[in-house]
Each structure stands twice: as C-alpha cells, then as structure tokens.
Amino acid sequence: MTNPTLATLLAHRSIRRFTDEKLTAEEITTLVTAAQHAPTSTFSQQYSILSVTDPAKLAVLGDITGHHWLEQAGHYFIFLVDLYRNQELVPQTPTTAANLHSTDKLLAGIFDATIATEAVVTAGESLGLGSTIMGSILNDVPRLIQLFELPELTFPILGLAIGHPAEQPEHKPRLPQELMHFANTYRPITAADPQVVAYDALLKHYYQQRTANQREETFTHHLATELSRDPQQRAGILAALKQQGFLQD
User: Fold this and answer.
1) Has residue 245 been placed in a domain?
2) CA angle 20–23–27, rounded 5-degree value
3) Is residue 249 part of a domain?
4) Per the CB 3.0–4.6 Å rule, which of 99, 178, 217, 238 could disulfide with 207?
5) 24: containing domain
6) Is residue 187 part of a domain?
7) Would you say residue 196 lies in a domain?
8) CA-wise closest residue to 169 among 7, 18, 2
9) Rounded Cα distance, 40 and 108, in Å
10) Is the pTM here over 0.90, yes or no?
C-alpha cells in the first residue's frame, strides 16, 4: 500500500549538507502554514516559531549545538512552547494562572511544538527540501533564552535546519516493528532477543557500507554511547523551565 504522502514519509532521511540556495519567502510561508494546520492540544495553539536569519545568532546556535553546518542551511527555525501568548489573551484569575504554569500545559505545549515541527519536515520533503531536527539547542538553554529574549512561559524545544539538499544519504534501517509495536500489553525487550541481535548486525552492516562517515557501530553500542554522555551537559534544563514559569504545580 502506498501513495505520495506515504512515499514522502518512508523516504525520510536527515540532511546536514545543503546547497547555497536560501528558502524563498513563499517557501517559508508555506512551511509555517503547514505547521499551523497540524493538530494542537485543545486547539490552544500553544507554540510559536522563530525564524533565525541573523548570521551572528546562527553562529551562536552553531556554538551551542556543536553543529556549525546549520549556518549553511537554506533556513533555520526554532520551535517554542508558548503559553505566554495565551496568558496575555485571557483575563487573569488564580485558576488560569495555575493552569498556565502547570506541568499539564507544559506537556501540551511540547506536544504542539513537536507535532508542528514534524509537519514542517514532511511539508518540506514534499517540496524537495531536506532537514534535520535538532534537540541539541538544549545544550545551553539559558544562553538561548537570553539570545532570543524569550519571555516567561516560553521555552525552546527543537531547532530545524532545512534547505535544498546537497547530499542524499543512504536510508538508515529502523527497529523491527516487533520490538516497538505491541498489542494490548507492553513486551519487555532484552539485548539477547534474537531480533535485537539481528538488528545490531543489520545496523553494523549499514554503517560499514554507507558512503559517508563509515564506522563500526551497532544499535546497542550506539545506545550505550548516548547514555554515557555527561548528564551535566544539559543539567540546566529543569532550572530554566522553572525560571520561565513552568512546573509550578
């Protein structure tokens, strides 16, 4: 079973090398419009989008993320949780204040911003663009908040480098569905599971054979490496959330 939408979704790969061509104003408007038509929790539209075009600010983003290639993208978006706007649009009462500062509404804003991000990715790919979603903007949240003068009840969640691809990476194999799609009851998985062992072998072959950045790697080794990173690198996230007025319940 296939159609153009499925074909676009199943052909996804992250793009980190772009041509020099910048996105047009029409393309940017189209992508933002696609984001606006994504679902939002209770139709509260609890997110905003920043377009970053200032080269100096893009350079700071390169420092924060450790990925200066983002400066060469056709465009750069930052997706924000935004409850500040809704705070300004309604009469303030103890109940509205409690809700706006709650964990529940923070999660709703994260859902809204994340779903909007994926809508832009898919819309961009349908237009022949490529992109990479970047959670690495969270490496230094206080600096990001200061850089973009973010008011209370806003929080940066994801960056998105998007543009005209200058590469076409091989398609990276995903987990077998049996390891991540269950019926009615969660099924615990261990490293000894035959499907995990087979997936490790498949991913090892992929990394050995791909065109760029070949290396010895399996999925379980990749996970171990990721989970061995210094947790202090992003230790400021909780404090920054509270500073921005979230998690007050």
Assistant:
1) no
2) 155
3) no
4) 217
5) 4-169
6) yes
7) yes
8) 18
9) 8
10) yes
Count the residues in the chain.
249
Express each pLDDT in 105-161 by its tens digit.
999 999 999 999 999 999 999 999 999 999 999 999 999 999 999 999 999 999 999
Instruction: Give residue 139's region: left, alpha or beta (phi > 0; psi -120 to 50).
Output: alpha
Rounded to whole angstroms, the Cα distance separating 212 from 215 reads 9
User: Distance (Å, rounded) from C-alpha 67 to C-alpha 55?
Assistant: 14
pLDDT in tens, 183-237: 999 999 999 999 999 999 999 999 999 888 889 999 999 999 999 988 888 889 9
d(CA 178, CA 190): 13
Helix extents (H) in the chain: 4-10, 25-36, 55-65, 84-89, 94-100, 103-126, 141-147, 194-209, 219-227, 237-243
Helix, strand, coil % (nearest 5) of the chain? 50, 10, 35
Alpha helices in 101-190 (DSSP H): 103-126, 141-147
Q: Are residues 67 and 117 in the same domain?
A: yes
Distance CA 159, CA 78 (A): 4
